[in-house]
Predict the 3D structure of the following.
Amino acid sequence: MKQEYILNKENVRKLVKFLTVFEGKTLTRLKIDINHKYNKTDSLENLTNKLRNGTIKVSELIEVFDVLGYSIIVRKK
């Protein structure tokens, strides 16, 4: 069964946290996996600040969802 989640500016942080826990990870583990897969060195604090401030880039969200095993699909309303 496919599950869909609607992503909007107000729920990005909550959705990332929810899906991280849903997939059995912590935010720390998620960031370690992102850094490993994408050869990055930035910190968990950097990610959480971007999520809290709403300044995360689309490319970074794609990496987050990829590591969690999700795709971003855009469709007309």
